[in-house]
Amino acid sequence: MPISPLRKDAARNWDRIVAVARSLVDQGIPLQLNDVARRAGLGVGTVYRHFATTEALLETVATPCLEALVAQGEEALADTDPRRALETFLARTVEAQVTDASLAPVAAAPSDALPHTTELKTSLWATGSALLDRAREAGVVRPDLVSADLVPLMCGIAYAVDVHSGDPADRIDTAHRYLATLLGGLRAVPPQR
Amino acid sequence: MPISPLRKDAARNWDRIVAVARSLVDQGIPLQLNDVARRAGLGVGTVYRHFATTEALLETVATPCLEALVAQGEEALADTDPRRALETFLARTVEAQVTDASLAPVAAAPSDALPHTTELKTSLWATGSALLDRAREAGVVRPDLVSADLVPLMCGIAYAVDVHSGDPADRIDTAHRYLATLLGGLRAVPPQR
Amino acid sequence: MPISPLRKDAARNWDRIVAVARSLVDQGIPLQLNDVARRAGLGVGTVYRHFATTEALLETVATPCLEALVAQGEEALADTDPRRALETFLARTVEAQVTDASLAPVAAAPSDALPHTTELKTSLWATGSALLDRAREAGVVRPDLVSADLVPLMCGIAYAVDVHSGDPADRIDTAHRYLATLLGGLRAVPPQR
Amino acid sequence: MPISPLRKDAARNWDRIVAVARSLVDQGIPLQLNDVARRAGLGVGTVYRHFATTEALLETVATPCLEALVAQGEEALADTDPRRALETFLARTVEAQVTDASLAPVAAAPSDALPHTTELKTSLWATGSALLDRAREAGVVRPDLVSADLVPLMCGIAYAVDVHSGDPADRIDTAHRYLATLLGGLRAVPPQR
DNA sequence: CATGAATGAGCCTTCATTCAT
DNA sequence: AATGAATGAAGGCTCATTCAT
C-alpha cells in the first residue's frame, strides 16, 4: 500500500497500476512501465511517479503475498513441534512461490527497491532462521544446513517446478513432492552406510 | 563441432566464433551475435550463417560439456551399486551446471535449437532414468520420484547455488551440500513419525 | 522582491522559492521549477503562481545584484575622471558576472521575463552609455566603440572566464586580466604603425 | 572524413548525414541524432553507427573549418612580422567562429569526442602559442597574457558577437571591431596614467 | 491561494535481423 | 561464403505545464 495517504484519484490510479501489473505477472508477461501505463490508460509519467522502477512495482505486487507469509511465519513460531513448525513454514513458502509469479524474482534478488520489501524479507528470513535453529537443536534436521541456505533452497524448488513445467494445476503438487524429498534429506540423517 | 565438413577457412571461423562465445559465457556476458562477430573479427553475416540464433550458439558452446556428461553416464551405468551409480551421476551433473554457465539455460530449455543438443539431452535423460529406475527397484530411493523429476531437481540445485551467490570458489561445495541434502531425502525414507 | 504586497504566507513562500533558486544557481544546478518546488517544500503550482517561467525566477534571483550594479553605476557617474569612472564601472560589471551565475544569462538575454529586469538593464545600459560617451568626448577611448558594444563585451569577458575554467578562486583575477587587456585596447589608440 | 575507406553506399550515407547536420547547424537548430536520421531519410541506427554521439557529429561538421584554420596557422607562422602574424591568425580564428556555428561549441569544449578533433585543436593551440610567444619576445604584446588565454579570449569575442546579435551580415565586422579593440589592448601597453 | 497528481510529447539508445555488395 | 551497413521497432526516462481538488 502507498506509504503516505494519497488523494482519492491518485489512490485509484495507484490501484489500477498495481492491478494491471498483477494481471501481467499472472499472465507471465514481463513488467514494463510504459506497457503498464498504456494498459492502465494512464500517462507514463503517472506510473513513474508512483513506481520509480520496474522492481518497485513488482515488489509492490508481491507485497500482500509476502505479508501473508510473514503472518504464517508467526503462526509457525507458535507451533511447539520444531519439525512440524519448520516444515509447515517452508511448505507455505514454496506454495506461495509457485503460485504467485511475483515472488520468485523478489525472493531471489540480492537487493530491494522498496524498504518495506527489505523489512518483509528480513522478517521472513529471521523466522526461517529461528525455526531452523530450533529444529536443529531438537536434532530433527541435519546439522550442516544453515539459515543462509533456506532462501536458495526454496527458490531452487520453485525454479525446479518451473522447469518441470507440466500442467499448471500440478504445480503445487510437484512443489510439495520436491519439498518433501528435500525435507526427507533435511532430517537428521546420519551419513548412512 | 560442425555437422557437415566445412571448408578450411569456414571451419576456422566456426572455431573462432565458438571460442569467443565460450569466453563470453565464462565471463558472464550475455551472448549477442553482433558482439560475438565483432570480437571474433568477423562479419555478423558469417556468424548468422553458422548459428541462426543465440540459442544455437549457446548449445554449441555447451555441447562438449554435455558430451562429457554423457560419457560419465555410461560409466555410471557400469557401476554395480545402484545408489552409488545414481548419486555419482547426479553429482557430476550439478557440478557441471554450477561450473559452466552455458549448461543451465540449455538444460532448462523446453526445446532445443540443434538436433544434436536434443540427442545429447535425450541420452542423458535416458541414463538418468535408467539409473533412477535401478535404484528404485533396489529400494534405495523413495518411490514417488520419477525420472521426469531429475532434470528439474538438478536445475533447481544449480539455481539455488546461484541464488546463494557467495564466493565463486564455494559454488561446488555448496552444490554438493545441496545435492547431499536432496539425496538424503531421496533415499527410501518411510514417512517418519 | 514581489511587486505587489503579498499576504504574509505568500510572501514567505516567495522568499523560500527565491532562496532555493539562489542556492541552486550558486551550485551550478540548472533551475527547474519542479525541482525548486520540491526543495522548497511547496507545490509546483505555487511556484508557477509566483514565477511563470524559469527565466522569471532567474531574473528575480539576479535582481539584487543588478540593483547593486545600478547603485555602483550612480557612484561611477559621480566620478569626475572620465576614464576611471568608466573602467571602474566595467570592472564591477564583470566581477559581478563571474561571481554570480545568475547574471550572465540575464545579461545576455535579448528579452526579459520581468518588466523590472528590463528597467534595471535599461538603467545600467544608460549608465554605461553615459560613461562611455563622456570618456569618448574626453578622448580617452577609441571612437569606434559604441554603447551597444558594452554589454556584449562584458558578457564576452565573462564567457571567456568560463571557457578558461581554471581554479574557481582565480575567476576574478582572470576576469580582471581580460578586462585590463580589453581596456588597454579601449583607450584611444591611434591605429599604430 | 571517415577514418577508414567506406563502401560507396555507406560513404553516401555518411555524406548525407554530415550535410544534414551542417544545414541544421547553419540554421541554428540543435543537433539531435534522431532528427538528423529522419531528415536524412535514414534509420537511427545508421546515424548511430557513423556517429556515436552528437558531439562526434558536430566535430565532424566542424572539421573542414578547423583544418582550414590549421592551414592558415601554417601561413601565419611563415610571416616574419611577429605582430602581424599573430593578429592575422587571430582574425581568421574569430572570423571562422562567427561564421560557422559548429566551431564555438567545439572550441569551448574541454574534451573532444574524436581524436582527430583533439589533434586539430592541439595543433591550433600550438600555433597560437608560438605566435604569441614570438610576439611577446618581440615586445609587441603585453607580457601578462599567456597562451592559455588565447582560446578563451577568441571564444569570448565570438560570444560577444552573438550577444550583440545585430544584422547577421554585420557579424564579421563586429567581430573585427571587437578583435581590434582587444588587440589594441594586447599591444605592449605600459599601465598608463 | 496552495497543492501536487497527471500528462505525454520528446529524446535517447540498443539490438536482432536482413540484404546489397 | 563472407561482409558489415542499414534498418527501425522497442524500450527507457525526463520534464514543462496544466488542472482538479
Give a description of the structure:
Four copies of one chain form a homotetramer. Chain A has 193 residues and is mainly α. Chain A has two domains: 1-52, Arc Repressor Mutant, subunit A, CATH 1.10.10.60; 62-186, Tetracycline Repressor, domain 2 (Orthogonal Bundle), CATH 1.10.357. Helix content of chain A is 72%, strand content 0%. Chain A has helices at residues 8-27, 33-40, 44-50, 54-78, 82-99, 103-108, 115-137, 150-164, 171-186. The first copy, chain A, is elongated, with a radius of gyration of 19 Å. The relative contact order of chain A is 0.11. The model of chain A has no long low-confidence stretch (mean pLDDT 91). Chains C and D meet through α8 and α9 of C and α8 and α9 of D. Chain A binds a DNA duplex (21 and 21 nucleotides) through α1, α2 and α3.
Supply database-style keywords:
homotetramer, DNA-binding, mainly alpha, 0% strand, Tetracycline Repressor, domain 2, Arc Repressor Mutant, subunit A, elongated, 193 residues
Parts with pLDDT < 50 across at least 5 consecutive residues of chain A = none
Summarize model confidence as the mean pLDDT of chain A.
Answer: 91
Largest sheet of chain A: none
Instruction: Determine the oligomeric state from the structure.
Output: homotetramer
Largest inter-chain interface?
A: C-D, 31 and 33 residues
Radius of gyration of chain A: 19 Å
CATH superfamily of the largest domain in chain A: Tetracycline Repressor, domain 2
Overall, the morphology of chain A is elongated
Q: Report how far apart the termini of chain A are.
A: 54 Å
Please give the CATH class of the largest domain in chain A: Mainly Alpha
CATH topology of the largest domain in chain A: Tetracycline Repressor, domain 2
- Give the domain tally of chain A: 2
Number of strand elements of chain A? 0
What portion of the residues of chain A fall into strands of 2 or more residues? under 5%
Briefly note the structural class of the backbone of chain A.
mainly alpha
Level-2 CATH architecture of the largest domain in chain A: Orthogonal Bundle
